Amino acid sequence: MRFRNFMAIDWSGAQGQRQKGIAVAQCSPGDDPPHLLKPATRGYWSREDVLDLLLNDLPPQTLIGIDLGISLPFADAGAFFPGWEGSPADARMLWALIDDICADDPHLSAGSFVDHATLSTYFRRHGGREGANFHLPGALHKRGRMRITEEAQARAGCRPYSNFNLVGAAQVGKSSLTGMRLLHRLQGRLPVWPIDPLPKTGSVLTEIYTALAAVEAGRPSGRTKMTDYGALNAALAGLGSAPVMNQGPIDDHSADALLTAAWLRIAASRTELWQPAELSPELARTEGWTFGAL
Length: 294
Fold this sequence. Notes:
It comes from Novosphingobium guangzhouense. This is DUF429 domain-containing protein. The protein has 294 residues and is of the alpha/beta class. The protein has a domain at 5-70 and 183-274. Helix 6 crosses helix 8 and helix 7 (229-238) runs parallel beside helix 8. The protein has helices at 47-56, 91-101, 111-114, 148-155, 173-186, 210-216, 229-238, 252-267, 281-286; strands spanning 5-10, 23-27, 35-37, 62-67, 124-125, 129-130, 192-193, 204-207. The two termini are 20 Å apart.
């Protein structure tokens, strides 16, 4: 075990500066309970607060999991945006494209990207606006395009959504796009696995799917969300963690972050999770992967 701290971030792609949907939890090796971190400023976390934490205030040797998609589907069509001559060649170029188009969007939001005249045709947006390129020609289902790692999530009993889908309470497209603006700003400062190789020392950030942690903790695959400390502590016990000493209700974002921090603590030393069979060098640089998906 080379990591000495474990941090889970439940992310949000909602509009506005401060987000109820962002929660950050941390734990250390052993079985002590995870705890929530608060932003340096009062109130809820902002996306800029999280960026500042990652760049300037990380404990040493931290494994950070962030609940978003670090890229878009690529392998199914050989491109993020098939048919568009400006389609980026890899994930880092995708992050740069999003950040460039959204340069004037405040708070690391990504509205300009999904409203782009050409790129909007690849997304399903509110108001029944499904772009002509949301589905690949001949697609047999209505879920939209999926990454290889999302197919692996589904095999584990989870219910992933396409990152091109921006509609519905369970969608992760908006949070993924805003998160890619954050990832663009981490380049050269904090490795992002598997876009970057796993370093032998130091901290590293990776994509997580909190439902994977909840399922391993014993939660039913269709009921991974927890809204009271009793349910959270039962799940923590399933991961070998001491309970959080609170009672009553808890918001599901905080519960997700707390449980996933404890899961990262026991998952980080599993060699197979860092070496999924389907993760080729090409896939690593284009689509990335979700830590814990096999």
